[in-house]
């Protein structure tokens, strides 16, 4: 969610992220430099107020979670087929901003009613259809994601974090019924990095360990490698390496410092945080 | 200010901005299409909750404006020289994250103390130093911006808007003491565009008319044009056309529909809104 009010504090002096203009700053008379220091002290106080603002917005997220919850529960019941919607619950067009005749054509194309409950492969299609996630899904991920029954989020205030939970039906691929990823936030900046403050910062991301059934782990693949040296020089040895998979999303870099082994997961992580 | 929690609602179905997958949707059995309609109705209810969230954030902006105000007032007093800061108000380093010896060098480079009050050309240098505004400033704008004494913002709830005010000392260029630009927001989406809702939307932008002193209007320039046809064919006629200037910032497109004559102003407008 993007808050639309421009943050005039960012236009203060000195600017976060901006290179200080040494020439300009050096030339300033000492009595003017004093005033610049005073401005910096005011800026520090402004940053404290800004951080408090973000604390309040985070609390607001928690408050609204309760309002979204029943709606998301309804969504889940419709998707999984726990509940068949009443006519009154369906009285909106299949597509918005669409000519009735186009919608009619869509109904003509309908396959015969099936006895299947809910909406088959709903979340698989959501992830395939969303540009943040579509590129992450490999062919070997698709059959697994057909077991995805719901995606939920939750917000925590202490510690400040938000969590994305992927709920799965019982399946032959892994034992987990929920795979979750938690983003821990630093809302109040550290004393020594206040001038870099630009809103809450993701300081740590954790993902659930997937308990794969034997031979079902799509995030690893075996490769044959010719040994260069040692006793086995020239021999081919089998080595297990990381494979592209949507499920690497749950194996994020342990810290911001750690070099990221999974560009895809990092891309979506940042994209989702900045969304 | 960016709100950091990813909006899982955006991952609902159908996606805002996403092209509906006609093939996928058409093939769905009629009883499944019914359930998709039910999901859309749930999605509409979610969007209403989301809009309420943004209303609350906007109200929070207004609440925090009162907390920023005294700090911005202090900043103004230091910048304009209305107030000379006490030693206690200056006890922070001239530059953060900087080695003391580098700071010492900056002090060595200091010119002799001047009798000038405050910090000369502070806001001119802020605007020159900020990448959102530096490109807008033309050579003929610089002397005018030396009279800029403060930049303030204000938020309004009814109608929802925010305003940027540029305060100027008495100057030989224009009569206005304040030039302001107001951004009007649509926080609650219209019924027919709910599925496109992605947070508050700037629906109208207004800027103050600058009362230029005679011959001082830097946003206009006279060009000589050879007449192609008519009685004056072949003669050179003087024509007044729009000139590049920072002050075009206050002459935004009247509506989103209107073709934008000032790419620069449009760029900064959007950049500031999305900031």
Automatic annotation (TrEMBL), chains A, B:
Family affiliation: Belongs to the nucleosome assembly protein (NAP) family.
Superkingdom field: Eukaryota
GO-annotated cellular components: nucleus
Gene3D superfamilies noted in UniProt: 1.20.5.1500, Nucleosome assembly protein (3.30.1120.90)
GO terms, biological process: nucleosome assembly
Protein name according to UniProt: Nucleosome assembly protein
Organism: Caenorhabditis angaria
PANTHER family, A to Z: TESTIS-SPECIFIC Y-ENCODED PROTEIN
């Amino acid at each position: 969610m993007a808050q639309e009010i421009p943050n005039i504090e960012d236009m203060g002096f000195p600017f976060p992220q901006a290179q200080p203009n040494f020439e300009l700053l050096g030339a300033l008379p000492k009595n003017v430099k004093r005033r610049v220091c005073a401005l910096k002290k005011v800026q520090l106080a402004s940053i404290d107020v800004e951080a408090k603002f973000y604390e309040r917005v985070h609390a607001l997220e928690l408050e609204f979670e309760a309002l979204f919850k029943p709606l998301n529960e309804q969504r889940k019941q419709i998707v999984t087929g726990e509940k068949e919607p009443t006519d009154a619950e369906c009285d909106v067009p299949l597509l918005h901003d669409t000519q009735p005749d186009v919608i009619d054509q869509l109904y003509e194309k309908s396959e015969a009613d099936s006895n299947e409950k809910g909406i088959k492969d709903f979340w698989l299609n959501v992830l395939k259809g969303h540009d943040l996630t579509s590129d992450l899904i490999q062919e070997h991920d698709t059959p697994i994601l057909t077991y995805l029954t719901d995606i939920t989020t939750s917000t925590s205030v202490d510690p400040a974090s938000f969590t994305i939970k992927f709920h799965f039906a019982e399946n032959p691929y892994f034992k987990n019924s929920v795979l979750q990823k938690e983003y821990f936030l630093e809302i109040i900046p550290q004393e020594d990095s206040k001038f870099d403050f630009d809103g809450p910062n993701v300081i740590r991301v954790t993902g659930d360990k997937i308990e794969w059934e034997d031979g079902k782990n799509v995030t690893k693949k075996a490769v044959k490698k010719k040994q260069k040296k040692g006793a086995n020089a020239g021999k081919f040895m089998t080595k297990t390496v990381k494979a592209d998979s949507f499920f690497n999303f749950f194996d994020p870099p342990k810290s911001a410092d750690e070099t990221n082994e999974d560009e895809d997961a990092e891309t979506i992580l940042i994209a989702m945080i900045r969304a």
